[in-house]
Design brief:
4 strands, two-stranded parallel ribbon, about 100 residues, single chain, alpha+beta
Length: about 100
């Protein structure tokens, strides 16, 4: 599994890992990130437990733009976005997606 995760990292592809709780999915992703040097060299590793979050925690807070009659969103500080001080690359690990509401 670590080889598949590494191949996805190297190909810059998203990866969906499915399996029962407690089999080490999170550990395998972290181990692959360590092996590839993704926890150093100014690269980020963000581990998010989706089952413990509300939708606004991911999307951010709505901010109305009354002149355009649209809503913009203020992203959370822990989530990298273009122009932020976060590294340009890394791993965003969204865990427990099947437990979300």
């Amino acid at each position: 599994m670590i080889d598949l995760i590494t191949a996805a990292f190297n190909a810059d592809l998203p990866l969906f890992i499915w399996g029962p709780p407690g089999i080490g999915k999170s550990d395998m992703v972290r181990q692959a990130a360590v092996q590839q040097g993704w926890l150093q060299d100014n690269k980020a590793f963000i581990d998010v437990r989706l089952s413990q979050m509300e939708p606004v925690d991911l999307r951010g807070l709505p901010v109305p733009d009354m002149s355009a009659r649209k809503t913009d969103w203020l992203p959370p500080t822990w989530l990298p976005f273009e122009g932020s001080a976060w590294p340009n690359s890394g791993v965003l690990f969204l865990d427990e997606a099947s437990s979300t509401s």
